[in-house]
Write a structure and sequence with these properties.
It is a multi-pass membrane protein. By secondary structure, the protein is mainly α. It has helices at 2-7, 12-38, 47-65, 69-90, 101-118, 122-146, and strands at residues 92-93, 98-99. It has one domain (13-144).
Length: 160
């Protein structure tokens, strides 16, 4: 019976630290998620936070189970590969058009935010979130104007 109680013991300090990290990952995913939701993309306010906190959680578990940095690097490689797979599913190609590449890149970036938070690299995570948000807010109008159009971009247009 004592072995069961020991196996079920919870380090509440660790729970607090991990809850904080998952909350930071969640919050940092919201600007990207909001933008993608606002643009009526398939991935939005549910997908981006889930991707970010899952990436963070996998890395946190990996750090707890495998203290060796090389093993942790393999977990990170797995997350990167998985994010590429998820992003690939967001890209739609027809004979004349490719859509979803910006959303796919944002999903990959959101995974990087989660991993950065899990590794305690909050500066990187904040910068990734901020730069992604700014790219989605500032580049589409510039891209649209450079294509010879001088009116505001239509919601749901081909960018992303």
């Amino acid at each position: 019976m004592n072995e069961i109680a020991y196996a079920l013991s919870i380090d509440w300090d660790k729970v607090g630290d991990q809850t904080f990290q998952l909350a930071v990952a969640f919050i940092l995913s919201l600007p990207i998620a909001w933008n993608r939701e606002e643009k009526s993309r398939g991935a939005g306010l549910r997908t981006f936070p889930l991707v970010c906190i899952a990436s963070c959680a996998y890395m946190l578990v990996g750090k707890a189970v495998f203290p060796d940095p090389e093993a942790q690097a393999r977990i990170m490689y797995g997350i990167i590969t998985g994010m590429g797979f998820i992003g690939g599913g967001a890209i739609l190609k027809t004979s004349s058009h490719v859509a979803g590449t910006a959303t796919a890149a944002a999903l990959w970036n959101t995974g990087a935010i989660g991993v950065s938070v899990a590794q305690g690299q909050y500066e990187i995570a904040v910068l990734l979130s901020l730069v992604s948000f700014l790219i989605f807010m500032l580049i589409p109008p510039i891209k649209h104007m450079s294509n010879g159009h001088h009116h505001p971009r239509e919601p749901g247009g081909p960018d992303g």
